[in-house]
Specification:
Helix content is 32%, strand content 23%. It is of the alpha/beta class. The strands form six sheets. Strands 12-11-8-13-16-17-19-20 form an eight-stranded mixed beta sheet, with helices on both faces. The protein has a five-stranded parallel beta sheet with strand order 2-1-3-4-5, with helices on both faces. The chain folds into two domains: 9-181, Rossmann fold, CATH 3.40.50.1950; 186-401, Rossmann fold (3-Layer(aba) Sandwich), CATH 3.40.50.10300. The chain is built from twelve helices and 21 strands. Helix 1 crosses helix 8 and helix 9 packs across helix 12.
Length: 410
């Protein structure tokens, strides 16, 4: 599946905040993702960033004045009606108020009144302004109309104070926009559970048994499923990756914690993708206190952890497993496919440097009960979409196989 931003018409509204410089970086990220970007600025925004900064990146004229000559007939109308999404970043208190009240005294607000595409707001302002009841009421009004609001973060502000009011980073805004545009994609209305990371089994309060999993594949799958319209629950062991926007993240540490979290999450789910590297064994009795070095051998008794995915038996659930192997890749994958009663298993040789733990790429073989599909070396996000392509096909095949009225009440 192609990037959800490719060839999409994104309207970027920029209002008068010092954070306007971030909007330049945002426009660049959108263009790199394949979007066609039109920029509309308030007069105050041009006092922070020149329109030429955007024009040099998006290669399209910037609208700043409702009355300036334009090659477009009534530019604010054509921009609004052609857009697939309207992003306002930064959104100041004044701009938010104007959007909530339906004002049209500048090019940005007038364009907003003509636009019926999804609205994504990234507020940026002084903490006291953001927290003021008027601003919060205006934001709530916009949320009720369907707008998505990316909450500002805390940090140093232009006033010199420290508080909440910093605009979300461009990468976060792009991620949120992908989520917004994916609402009607091929996983819309589906519930997908993804696991990620390597579980940790405590030895004592300062030591644990774990593995080299980075969580990158699981997080790529969670983001990809979200961008295709799914409601995603991500059950994650400890990782050094930021949580994807718009995903229900449930943090666990041990295999037993992951088992309980997955069993809860799959209630009502359509898909379970077990991308986590779950510890096969745990210490039978971990110490409550740090084990001191004595010079003698330390013997730990390990007991097996339960096989999480094999223990879940819901006929309507599409189950996808992973097999990280160092030898006999296909034989081991096919054995796990059968033993764990999976619909798909994704196998990769983790002994190779470009598809092992921690890499940004992967070379996998997707195995089902009738075939194998070997993929070339790809970025993990593209691998995630290839896996989800197969998941979508499986669900469609199952939907077609259910007789009409099979779920009807007697």
């Amino acid at each position: 599946m192609a990037d959800s931003l490719k060839d999409k018409r994104v309207l970027l509204g920029v209002s008068g905040s010092i954070a306007a410089f971030k909007a330049v970086a945002l426009s660049s990220d959108l263009v790199k993702a394949g979007a066609v970007v039109d920029v509309v600025m308030t007069p105050n925004a041009t006092r922070f960033v020149a329109p030429l900064s955007f024009e040099a990146i998006v290669h399209r004229p910037v609208l700043t004045d409702l009355f300036e000559p334009s090659a477009r007939s009534i530019a604010h109308v054509s921009l609004g009606t052609e857009a697939n999404a309207f992003v306002v970043a930064p959104a100041t208190a004044d701009c938010i108020a104007g959007l909530a009240l339906g004002l049209a005294h500048d090019a940005l607000l007038a364009t907003a009144l003509t636009c019926r595409a999804p609205l994504l707001l990234a507020p940026a302002m002084e903490t006291l302004m953001f927290e003021h009841p008027a601003t919060q009421s205006n934001l709530e009004t916009l949320r009720r109309r369907g707008a998505v609001v990316l909450e500002p973060t805390s940090g140093h502000l232009a006033s010199g104070r420290v508080g909440r009011g910093r605009m979300a980073e461009p990468t976060e805004i792009v991620e949120a926009l992908r989520s917004v545009l994916g609402r009607s994609a091929d996983l819309a209305g589906r519930r997908v559970v993804v696991t990620a990371g390597g579980t940790q089994e405590p030895i004592d309060p300062v030591r644990h048994i774990s593995n080299r999993s980075s969580g990158k594949m699981g997080y790529a799958l969670a983001s990809a499923a979200r961008d295709r319209g799914a409601h995603v629950i991500l059950v994650t062991a400890p990782v050094a990756i930021s949580a994807p926007h718009g995903v229900d993240v449930r943090k666990v540490t041990t295999a037993l914690e992951m088992k309980a979290a997955v069993e809860s999450a799959v209630e009502g789910a359509d898909v379970l993708i077990m991308a986590a590297a779950v510890s096969d064994y745990r210490v039978e009795a971990s110490s409550l206190h740090k084990i001191k070095r004595t010079g003698d051998d330390l013997v730990l008794r390990l007991v097996p952890n339960p096989d999480i995915v094999a223990g879940i038996n819901r006929e309507a659930l599409v189950k996808v497993g992973f097999a990280a192997e160092t030898d006999d890749l296909l034989a081991n994958a096919q054995e796990k496919l059968t033993r764990k009663r999976l619909d798909l298993i994704v196998a990769n040789d983790v002994s190779t440097p470009d598809s092992g733990f921690g890499s940004d790429t992967n070379r996998v073989v997707i195995v089902d009960r009738a075939s194998t599909q070997e993929l070339p070396l790809l970025p993990k996000r593209e691998v995630a979409d290839r896996i989800l392509d197969r998941v979508v096909k499986l669900m469609r095949d199952r939907d077609r196989s259910v007789p009409v009225g099979a779920n009807a009440s007697p």
